Amino acid sequence: MASAKITCRLVAGQKPDAVIATITRHLQDRLPKGFQLEVHRHGPGSEADFVDPDLPALKISEGVLGELLGEKPLRVAMGATIPIGSAFRKHLGCASIFFSFSTADEDYHAPNEFFRLENFKLGMQAWTMLLRRLAASA
Questions:
Q1: In a 10 Å sphere around its CB, with 0-12 CB exposed, 13-18 middle and 19+ buried, how is residue 61 labelled?
Q2: What is the pTM assigned to this prediction?
Q3: SS (H, E, C) 23-80
Q4: Taking 70 as the threshold, does the pLDDT of residue 70 lie above it?
Q5: Is 105 helix (H, G, I), strand (E, B) or coil?
Q6: Taking a C-beta distance cutoff of 8 angstroms, is the pair 125, 68 a contact?
Q7: Of 74, 120, 78, nearest to 98 (Cα)?
Q8: Which single residue of 30, 45, 74, 136 has CA 20 to 30 Å from 36?
Q9: Residues 72-76: what's their mean pLDDT?
Q10: Model confidence pLDDT, tens digit, residues 58-69
Q11: What b/e readout covers 50-59, taking b as 16+ CB neighbours within 10 angstroms?
Q12: In degrees, to the nearest 5, what angle opens at C-alpha 19 toward C-alphas 31 and 105?
């Protein structure tokens, strides 16, 4: 008996059921004779969320970051399935931004994960500015 765990980071528009069906079909089509495939799903999965580039909160957050860091932030597409983002969109009808100060080299979700204290301090300052500006724009 052999087993493997497969996790997927979905992109906007992909449905968890369709992704699982595609992977299962791909594996089944390549299964050697005499072997069986069993797929055990752990939870329903979640759709990927996306950030509307015209979202006012995004522009405000970019302003905060530009002011604190001395230059305009660069927008990048980044794969991450954070279920609460799509849940807010689906159930509350509102969009989300994620305002994080961890960097890729800090190995988040790894056994040797760490977080730089200077990023913690920067984050606290940025969050204070962001919340004040969001309140003022409401």
A1: buried
A2: 0.71
A3: HHHHHHHCCCCCCCCCCCCCCCCCCCCCCCCCCHHHHHHHHHHHHHHCCCCCCCCCCC
A4: yes
A5: helix
A6: yes
A7: 78
A8: 45
A9: 86
A10: 999 999 999 999
A11: ebeeeeebbe
A12: 100
Read off the tokens for 68. Answer: 């604190």
Query: Where are the chain's structural domains?
Result: 1-46, 56-137
Give CATH for domain 56-137: 1.10.150
Cα–Cα distance, 85 to 11 (Å, whole number): 13
Given 3-state DSSP classes, what are the helix, strand and coil percentages for the chain, each rounded to the nearest 5?
A: 45, 0, 55
28 Cβ contact partners less than 8 Å away, ≥ 6 residues apart: 37
Q: Of 45-54, 65-74, 121-130, which gets the smallest average pLDDT?
A: 45-54
